[in-house]
């Protein structure tokens, strides 16, 4: 049980900067997800916490103890590897018991705790199997139990769901989240999958090119993205170039004036608007034009054209008698949104990085 | 496989052929045109099978010949045999030199394997894991005994042993120590090759997981790395043993009276007699190696490593 503090942690390989001054403060029992495309430095950051990579600069503090220069075995972390990394020559029970054995826990106590951990992940019936005799999902639960059984101060998850098939993914994700909450585990997780991160994490850290672009709750990132990268990476987003013209009017480069949220801090750049916040209605006098409509069962996508600007809108599929069902490609449409749904944000160049203040994660 | 086709390619061809056949009056040429694609596929498969069969025949022919001639009831091998017998086996059994040679070879091969495999494993670990200068050069040197003709290496060792005997004023040639040392040379390339391959395929995350769970480096090595390398090491031991046991050229000059390996004893026998006794001894060796391989395969899947 503990907290995790990253203080200006950096990793350079010669000239190349893999991780650039990452600051992060994870509270007891909180699950924080590092989110970003591959090569953004999220895995390097996780491995620096585990002790497999030594930072070039900065401090890693676990439970108030500076562990920056300690080897992996002397840190109190429990890691679940992307490949699960089970010991192929040991039974499930021996895999789970390994950490306790290393901590010199007596045999009887060890057996009891292994059985308890296996019950927790519902694998008590398979204790004597070898890893290769288990399915991918079961192997992953063994890896979870093996990391949990030693009650680590910090729990580390490296792409925990990436090796599972799509069906299992959501289910296992929820299961891990439930377990993490129940046991109050301080957890740092790495993922490139935004759905995974949004569903599981208390707070998300969006990274790119080794830098933290924004830290915040799922709602923070989705509703108030700090820049275009975050806006585009977390959920889908229409990004329309132009400039603010009044308190709540945005002039698109193509000439059309559209409503936007009043925000003095953001004078210009791009207008970000989520597809599902856009209303589409048939209107012979509408400024927009429907280019294509995609029926996706529960929802329908509208590919729109607004004064030369391509816009995507999504809505729950309308009922059969709705006039929208009779729209055809080329039809004129009215495109509307409430001003607060459209936010003006700066572009994602390095100079404009503005992380959400660390101390107030929940708004 | 060649018969049922869902793809558009062959289907179209067939349909075209059918149309052509309907349009034109039935000629002898029409039938082959219809069977065209199927036939070529079948011919291809046949050619492939023939090639596979031929390859196996070439590989196994010498072994089969040795085994067959060991039962021929005449001294000079001719076809067809006059009759079948097991007297060459009895003769081989009666030759004291073969029995002694077998024991000597066994002793040397076991000792060389016991020394060479740990050394080779350590070398492989250093080559794969450590950042050492001249890694490629060291690798080449360690594999060299496989590349240098054994008779050349044997001659060189012979001369070296003579010099060393002079300097140290002790016997080396034809001693157990001298022979084992020479045979370690044979076992090292095998071990380095096989263990290096195993190491390259080893999931390092398992070692990291162990470290993450509190295992110090030495514990990680003994509890995780070594057991995961076990198949490669077992295979290395097997091949080292066989390579050393059957080696003739390297040991040829290093053996001496009273300490002769089985292959050298067989060569000596050949100088005076030319009967199928050697085929009988060879058959016994083939049997031994086969059993050794089968037993090993029970514990580690050799086909997965080599």
Automatic annotation (TrEMBL), chain A:
Similarity comment: Belongs to the ABC transporter superfamily.
GO cellular component: ATP-binding cassette (ABC) transporter complex
Sequence ranges assigned to domain ABC transporter in this UniProt record: 4-234
Keywords: ATP-binding, Nucleotide-binding, Transport
GO molecular function: ABC-type transporter activity; ATP binding; ATP hydrolysis activity
Lineage top rank: taxon: Bacteria
Localization annotation: Cell inner membrane
Name of the protein in its database record: ABC transporter ATP-binding protein
Topology of this chain in the membrane: Peripheral membrane protein
InterPro entries: AAA+_ATPase, ABC_SmlMolc_Importer, ABC_transporter-like_ATP-bd, ABC_transporter-like_CS, Mo/tungstate-bd_C_term_dom, P-loop_NTPase, Transp-assoc_OB_typ2
Species assigned in the record: Methylobacterium nonmethylotrophicum
